[in-house]
Amino acid sequence: MSLTRSAISAVPGVLFGVALNVASNMISVYPNPIIWIIILTTLSFISFFIIHNWNRKKIFIKPGSPNAKLVINPNTPPDFAKNGLIILLSEYKTANQNFTAEKLAKLDERIPDSEWMTFGKSNMLVPITAIQVHQSTLKVVWLIHTSSSAQTALALERYVREVLTIHEKQLIILKIGLQANSSDLLLADETRKRIADIFDNRIKKFSLTEESVVVDITGGTKGMALGATLACLDENRLIQVTQSTVKQSDLVTVQFPFKVYITDAS
């Protein structure tokens, strides 16, 4: 906590002390104890509320927030594209059981263009767009997945290599599997630890800085999104939200203590 923040946090306590001093002098003039008990209790609650809320980080949606940065389409400016991208991966859903994620992941299986097109327009549109947004400068992608989306991670990597034609020399794709699957709380905790480990220990191996890596919290489960947010919240790490459908008139910005980017996958 900074010196300025500490000093401001102490203001309510000082004011309360002054109020007590004034109150003690006025009791002799207005001796009714019930009135003063009510006044002092009210002052105590007000002081506690101010101190508690001043030291608390706030996360909330607020239209038109000047603190969030919006990018609406993949033609992003150079200062937005990052070198590292962390993606929370959802399981690929398809009605065609002949081309599940498991089959798409097999390198020896020939996949028709129509099926890759279906894959690209499914819930995989979000991670695909997230990669395309940063493609001009992207060096490393971390795909965080559960056991149920492990095959989806392999299928997505194959899509990036064969359809987007982004080769291994251009982009490193690393897959990180989570052990927890059923509990959102366990997934949140494990996701937080894995992402913290990426920032603390792994990005240096690729000569990346924290400022050059962004976390996309759009996919995955609720628990994974919570864990990713917690990993970034106190460290001022960048978070990105990729929306599959978004209209210019419907845009809202998200206010965090760190920058949030919203990209368009429409």
Molecular structure report:
The chain is α/β, with parallel strands linked by helices. The chain has 2 domains: 52 residues; 203 residues, Rossmann fold. It is built from 8 helices and 8 strands. A 6-stranded parallel beta sheet has the order 4-3-2-5-6-8, with helices on both faces. Strand 5, helix 8 and strand 6 form a beta-alpha-beta unit. The longest helix has 25 residues. The chain is elongated and about 90 Å long. The protein starts with a helix and ends with a strand.
In brief, what are we looking at here?
The protein has 266 residues and is α/β, with parallel strands linked by helices. 42% of the residues lie in helices and 14% in strands. The strands form 2 sheets. The chain has a 6-stranded parallel β-sheet with strand order 4-3-2-5-6-8, with helices on both faces.
